[in-house]
Amino acid sequence: MDLREELAALHVALRRNTEEILAELRALREEREREARARLWERALLILALAVGLMGWWRP
Length: 60
Prior knowledge:
Elements: H1 3-58
């Protein structure tokens, strides 16, 4: 293998590695967004439950 072939092979390896890292980052970002949406829904339901509870306490 001459120097040009070795550089080409290194370039391909680096590109694959970069693509794998980017795919992992995308997956982590999507997971973080899903968790953020889940926390938002949990908070909204908690606030709704609190409001319903207060309304029931206010008007028995």
